[in-house]
Structures are given as C-alpha cells and as structure tokens.
Design goal:
The protein is built from five helices and nine strands; from the N terminus they run ααααβββββββββα. It has helices at about 1-20, 35, 45-50, 55-60, 170-175, and strands at about 80-85, 90-95, 100, 105-110, 115-120, 130-135, 140-145, 155-160, 165. Strand 6 (about 130-135) and strand 7 (about 140-145) form a beta hairpin. Bound molecules: zinc ion.
Length: about 180
Amino acid sequence: MKYFFATVVVILLNNCTNGQDMDMRSKKIKIDENALSSVEKVVKSEEEWRRLLTPEQYYILRQKGTERPFSGKFYKHKEKGIYVCAACGNELFSSNQKFDSGCGWPSFFDEIAKGRIKYQIDTSHGMIRTEIMCARCEGHLGHVFDDGPAPTGLRYCVNSLAIDFKKASQETKKQEEE
Ligand SMILES: [Zn+2]
C-alpha cells in the first residue's frame, strides 16, 4: 500500500512540472460572451479568401502561420491610430494599447473593445497556448500570453501580416490630447 501511494505522488509531481512548463494558456483573459455572440460574422470560402489576401496573408490568417520575428512592418510602428484585421477590417487594437515587448512581433496589452477577439486553446508544437483570432472572420492573428504590462497583464502577440493600420485623423489626435 505504501508503495502504491508513493507511485501516485510521483505521477502527480511529474504532471505538475510538465504542466508548468507546457501550459502557456492565458489565465488573465476576461471573455465577454455576450459581446462575442453579438458579433456579425464574415464567412467566406477558402477560395474567396485566397483571392482576397496575398499568399503571405493567407498563410497567416487562414492557415495559422507565423511570420519571422522582427520581420513585420508593424513591429516598430509608433503612429497613432487603429489596427484592423487585414482580412475583414474589424477594428482590433488601438495604438494606445501597443507596447514594446521586445519579442519580435507587434504587441498589445488589450483588444480595442470587448468582443473583437476570439480566444481558443492551441495545443500545436508541444505547447498549450491561447490562440487569438478576429471574432468577425476568424482569421488567425497570433497568441496571447500572461506576461504583459498593467492594467491587463496580457501580451497580445500579433503577426504584422494579419493586421492593417488606420492612421488617426488630426481631429482624433486633438481630442486625445485634450
Ligand atoms: Zn477579420
């Protein structure tokens, strides 16, 4: 009997350490189910997406690819404005939520409004991560991690190829400064 308990303890300990190493699933996200369920979906066939997107965008957004770190056009981008989904134009992040994470991909600490991003567990590549997708067209954006700055503690790690940028007009800039 003693031997049996010892075995159980060893198994539990093993599971714990593995769990800590592999489980990169975010635990800080507060999902707003109501906001998500009221999103008007954009549904297109893979053929249509292929026609609309560049091959590089298609690889990221529809095939859940990842661009090389430090290669994206928005990694060091610092203009004021709004980042939208490159596939459907859904407004996803504000430049006010962007921060320099040093990870090689554009990083944000929050979505621009609740219900803009859909979250899903991703178990590929031997890790457990939280995948982020555009809630409107389900285009793959990247992943979200728990090591971001205040106030959310989140780091939305986004492929530059999955987003576009809308520059803030002079008027919006003025309003922000006031
Ligand atoms: Zn989209």
